[in-house]
Design goal:
mainly alpha; Cytochrome Bc1 Complex, Chain D, domain 2; 3 domains; two-stranded antiparallel sheet; two-stranded antiparallel ribbon; 3% strand; binds heme C; iron; Cyt_c-like_dom_sf; Cyt_c-like_dom; Cytochrome_c-type_DH; heme
């Protein structure tokens, strides 16, 4: 089978190689340091080495899992060759860049060892497989993979394999999201609209529709809203969460996590514009999220709420008064 490797995949692999070099430099530096030195361990930059995928049956599953991350729609999209599960043609790697290994891009390298885990959105303990299906259901607007399907097993094998690159004794860079400072004013879709034209439109299009690959099995530039975009129940639809991701990752050709392009305020305003569904409708099936309302993420915009702040405040901020409110009740707000 001939696999056409598109530009994005290439960029991803090249980034991966660069990161391996950085990681190995850091490992060398560490081994030369004084062992009695009591300084806290430096955070390491991780990368996976695809050449190290084992040549056995497990390795086969890992390889298919990696393929599924990069070419999700080709395999399991609306016209997938191995099954029709996704409702849209985005690929996992569009958000979990470099197949979930890029720092600060909803990195998935730690995930495998952190499940089963309690999830507030569902109000119960989820397995990793159920969490994978969450992303298939929401951003991808699709139907769940059977838990024993070849595809689910491949995703899990891949996540276990990327997890094996995480050192047990040191923190690593970019497992969590890049923080944005929350201003005293609400995020503004109006300011965001202007910034969108300046910084995003040239790739994602005037109507956020993106540009498909020639074979129509994915996107060169994925859609941001409209019938092919992610759903409101997705975490990408939450403004703080999206702003953290934009700061580290967009514009694609200009931002890096260590040299963001957008300011924190700009990232919040643009996220407010992209997620303003009065301008930008998107698929919106009924979801029953957060059965325990006091556990709602701060920037989740659907009521009822356990506090007295408005829908608009939850969606656009200002978030600080809400954070203070929850702190005064001795609770840590989630966002
Ligand atoms: C539109 C963007 C988007 C797409 C596409 C997407 N995800 Fe996600 N995914 C997210 C966000 C946002 C989170 C939550 C990250 C956070 O809370 O910091 C997430 C979380 C996850 C998690 C849980 C991570 C953890 O450690 O808790 C897994 C696993 C996951 N995604 C797998 C997938 C898979 C597999 C696909 C493809 C079938 C996929 N995602 C496609 C946005 C996306
Ligand atoms: C140079 C082209 C380019 C520009 C400019 C750009 N992006 Fe992207 N964007 C991409 C590509 C390519 C991806 C997919 C990344 C991947 O698959 O690794 C992406 C992915 C995304 C995603 C996640 C996937 C989805 O469709 O939901 C969001 C959200 C996003 N971009 C928002 C923005 C915003 C907002 C701006 C402006 C600040 C912007 N981008 C500017 C190329 C671009």
């Amino acid at each position: 089978m001939k696999i056409s490797v598109n530009r994005i995949v290439w960029t991803s692999f090249l980034t991966g190689i660069a990161a391996i070099i950085i990681y190995s430099c850091q490992t060398n530096a560490k081994s030369e340091s004084n062992p009695v030195d009591a300084k806290p361990p430096a955070t390491v930059l991780l990368a996976v080495d695809s050449a190290a995928i084992p040549g056995d049956k497990f390795g086969e599953a890992v390889k298919y899992g990696q393929e599924l991350m990069y070419r999700t729609a080709y395999y399991i999209g609306p016209e997938g060759i191995n099954g029709r599960y996704l409702g849209n043609r985005m690929n996992c790697t569009n958000c979990h860049q470099n197949g979930g290994t890029k720092p600060f891009s909803f990195n998935l390298m730690l995930s495998h060892e952190q499940y089963p885990q309690y999830r507030a959105r569902e109000g119960k303990v989820l397995t990793m497989a159920e969490r994978v299906n969450n992303c298939i259901n929401r951003p991808h607007n699709g139907k769940s993979l059977p838990l024993d399907s070849k595809e689910m097993v491949a995703f899990l094998a891949y996540f276990r394999w990327i997890n094996s690159f995480v050192p047990k004794d040191k923190p690593y860079k970019g497992g969590k999201n890049l923080e944005v400072e929350l201003p005293d004013v609400a995020a503004s879709p109006e300011r965001g609209a202007q910034l969108y034209v300046q910084h995003c439109e040239r790739c994602h299009g005037k109507d956020g529709e993106g540009i498909m690959t020639a074979d129509k099995n994915g996107y060169v530039y994925p859609p941001l809203w409209g019938p092919s975009g992610y759903q409101p129940g997705s975490s990408m639809h939450r403004i703080i969460k999206q702003a953290q991701w934009l700061k580290a990752n967009m514009p694609f050709d200009k931002a890096t996590w260590d040299k963001p392009f957008l300011t924190d305020g700009e990232a919040l305003d643009i996220a407010a514009f992209v997620n303003d569904d009065s301008r930008h409708p998107r698929p919106n099936p009924k979801m029953f999220d957060y059965p325990h309302i006091a556990e709602k993420a701060l920037d989740y915009d659907k009521g009822p709420f356990a506090d007295t702040f408005s829908v608009s405040a939850h969606k656009y901020g200002p978030y600080k008064p809400m954070i203070d409110y929850w702190k005064s009740k001795g609770q840590k707000p989630a966002y």
